[in-house]
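Sequence design from tokenized structure. All designs in this work follow the same two-part layout: the structure record, then the generated sequence. An example of the structure record is given first.
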């Protein structure tokens, strides 16, 4: 410490003791002033930082509130009569491809024999026939048609009876081992099935943990019919008259479906944009908010119809957002996707020289049941942009696509 003191005191060497004391006191006062001044500067900077932080928070809230999306039902705003976007050269924003040079892999549109058989089986499933042959035996996995009457302590109870009910054995759709007790039985058999309701039975709490007896009549076993010319003619005559014609119909329709899906995917995969038109994006966010609210209200009504409550109280929550800022981000993303699609189809339509005629518009309305009320709500421009123009673009590409 002595060494440190000596270094600090060099300034006062050669002075008389009284003068050194005065100089030292003067320096100490100056140091104290500098320290006080620095403290004030630091305090001021802290205050400024706090004010800036608070201002930033409230400023951001003000900005978000000021620019918060407001739902709109003006679907055809920002659109010309022909469905194109007003005052916008889409080629300045969207990057597409040569509409006449689309190539799709044959594997992406192939309709395999396995897929055909699945479609045939699905159709036959819709036309199952009831076999009442008494020598048949009910097996696990069979679909049986039954009548049943349920009783508890000898008295019938609500919901415990039905006629001509189709039950798949092993599905677990009936309580306890109801289904298993029918295995080995035959069409025409009358069977007594004894079961115990679960301890917690939400469908009817009054029946919980009670023993019940069901008088069951097995009407028959449902079986798949055979695909024959007679079956086709009787059940599928709107498509074909013979098995071969029906198989060709499946090939044709599935190819059309697959090629349309492949073209839609090609368009999505091969279009992009580095920037978006701000005013149009804002409009699309407003439309998306309206669509979200419509979907939320529809789902709420569906839940209510089945006596259930939704876990969400607003469209914002339904779309997975916890805050307004999060919801704005979701709306922005959805608007950009919609904008990209709209610009892409407009660009491709221009390449192909596609325009929507009055005749094409009226045909679309007629074929799709577009009423005057629907047309008034959405507007002709929006209907053209969202439905007619994309269909015409996909049809054009389908006519010019190379499948290899």
């Amino acid at each position: 410490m002595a060494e440190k003191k000596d270094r600090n005191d060099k300034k006062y060497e050669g002075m008389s003791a009284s003068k050194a004391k005065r100089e030292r006191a003067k320096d100490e006062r100056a140091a104290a002033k500098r320290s006080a001044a620095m403290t004030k500067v630091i305090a001021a900077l802290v205050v400024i930082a706090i004010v800036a932080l608070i201002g930033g928070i409230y400023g951001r809230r003000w900005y978000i509130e000021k620019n918060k999306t407001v739902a709109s039902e003006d679907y055809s705003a920002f659109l010309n009569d022909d469905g194109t976007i007003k005052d916008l050269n889409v080629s300045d924003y969207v990057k597409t491809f040569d509409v006449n040079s689309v190539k799709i892999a044959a594997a992406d549109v192939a309709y395999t024999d396995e897929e055909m058989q699945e479609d045939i089986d699905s159709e036959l499933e819709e036309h199952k026939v009831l076999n009442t042959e008494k020598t048949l035996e009910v097996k696990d996995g069979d679909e049986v048609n039954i009548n049943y009457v349920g009783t508890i302590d000898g008295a019938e109870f609500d919901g415990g009876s039905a006629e001509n009910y189709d039950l798949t054995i092993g599905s677990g759709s009936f309580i306890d081992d109801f289904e298993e007790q029918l295995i080995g039985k035959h069409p025409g058999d009358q069977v007594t099935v004894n079961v115990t309701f679960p301890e917690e039975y939400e469908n009817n709490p009054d029946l919980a943990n009670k023993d019940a007896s069901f008088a069951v009549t097995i009407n028959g076993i449902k079986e798949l019919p055979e695909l024959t010319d007679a079956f086709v003619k009787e059940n599928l005559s709107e498509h074909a008259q013979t098995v071969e014609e029906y198989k060709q119909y499946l090939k044709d329709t599935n190819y059309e479906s697959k090629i349309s899906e492949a073209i839609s995917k090609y368009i999505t995969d091969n279009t992009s944009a580095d920037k978006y038109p701000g005013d149009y994006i804002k409009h699309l966010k407003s439309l998306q908010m309206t669509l979200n609210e419509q979907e939320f209200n529809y789902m709420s009504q569906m839940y209510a119809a089945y006596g259930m409550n939704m876990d969400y109280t607003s469209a914002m929550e339904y779309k997975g957002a916890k805050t307004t800022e999060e919801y704005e981000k979701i709306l922005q993303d959805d608007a950009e996707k919609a904008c990209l699609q709209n610009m892409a189809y407009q660009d491709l339509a221009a390449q192909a020289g596609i325009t929507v005629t009055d005749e094409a518009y009226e045909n679309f309305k007629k074929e799709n049941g577009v009423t005057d009320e629907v047309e008034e709500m959405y507007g002709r421009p929006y209907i053209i942009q969202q439905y007619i123009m994309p269909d015409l673009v996909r049809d054009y590409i389908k006519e010019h696509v190379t499948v290899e």
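The chain is about 50% helix and 15% strand. We note this feature because it recurs in several other targets discussed in the main text.
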